[in-house]
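Reading is simple: each integer encodes one residue's backbone shape. The lines below illustrate:
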Amino acid sequence: MTVSVGVALLAGEPYPALALLLAAGVTAGTGYLARRALADAPAPQMKHGMVIAAGGWFAVAVFGTLPFLLTAHITPVAVMAGYVPAGAAYDPVTAWGPATRSSLGYFRSPLHALFESMSGWTGSGLTMAVHEPSLPRAIQWWRSVIQWVGGIGVVVLTVSILARPGSGSYALYRSETREERIHPSVVSTVRTIWKIFVGYTGVAIVVFFLALRTSDYGATLTLGEQAWQSLNHAMTGLSTGGFSVTDDSIATYNAPIVEGVLLPLMTIGAIAFPVHYLVLHDGDYGQFREDLQTRWLLVLLVVGSVLLAAQNTLTLGLSDYGASVAAPLVDRTTADGVRDAVFQFVSALTCTGFQSSPIGSWSDGGKLLLSVAMTTGGTAGSTVGGIKIIRAYTVARGIRWQFGRVFLPASAVVSVEMDGRRLGREEMEREFSEAAIISLLWVLLLIVSSIVLVNVAPAFGYADALFEVASAQGNVGLSTGIVGPSMSPLGEAMFVLNMWIGRLEIIPVLVFGRALVRGLGP
């Protein structure tokens, strides 16, 4: 928050600067008092680590609400109007107040501000800002930076800065669902992860900037605006967050070269960091083929893109593709349909949430394919949400293993080779049951939330509701149009919980809930 004050001052935005400074003071003061009060707390065990991770994530989202809320209340309405881009005439039905006012006004609602913060920190990308360009630069930056930090994990960041090597660090690290370590020390591991992440971000900014400059839309922008959009989209793309600073996400550009640059960027964010380490440190490019999760990620990206392209081409037809905000009343060609399918499936499976097409006009079959991709997610140990490929693979192998045992004698010794490890009966049962329980809880929550949403948003069908919940719970950010400032407060509050639970993969949140009710005893 304090660093972001500098961004506000450089942009000539005194009111956001004051709001960020106040938010930083409140947050730092609360943290200082809590740290002093609990300085003698023992190192956490695994159950404590889960409570800290779940409670910590929610607390970070609550304090992250302050910059949105304070900026909206401190900034005079006349100043807000100055944030609206020249020549923009936003629809007064979908924008806060008269058409000349900024979407910053939405964040006067504490629920809207909390939703935006939770969406940012969890890397979800769903937004209450109808028109992102009408936000002050400092708030655009705040949205991007919380996704960038949240992609790696707030608790992991805390471990890298504050924690000492030991059981406490390991408990927190595992609570972030990153089981694999690069170095023997967890602290060394997370610091290496941050070095890789920062390095990739620098490269991504440069590559996106060069691509943007060659696009027709980019040619209309000033050099400073090109750099600003490149910085923000590189941060939210690599972190698979999906927040944008343009009015229609990536559809604004309508440029194959920009989408082509983002495809590998989103894929990189969905690959586990230990794989990146082996490739960068040892030059072992074979890891992309040998690592089970990465191999299946690439297979699913190709197969899913082909299926979705066929679905859209056969079902929608040319005229049903509609128009984007950036190019009104322009029909999409067959090539555009294939391009949209590839980009949107990669965006969904990597849980990024960049949008290049009006998905709300797609058929239910296309929405269902994307919902499956968002539910599955990318690899464990990366920045993505969802169930994760390794769990889906473990459940599939476990079902096959259980079925195969039926035809073997009771005395048979059965083992399974999975991801380079040979698992005995007890190990396989443990891994299968863990993956199956988390997957079952994830899907059960998805179904229940979809039923709730379709009842509070009756203008939309169940396919849209399922899609929207999968996007929120999978921390993706794609939308068919349900999410927005006009949605039901019940649905909005439910989505805040969906995003929080999805980021922590359910179990830490259940442990946190049990601790609130019964304490952390046996």
User: Anything to note?
Assistant: The chain has 22 helices and three strands.
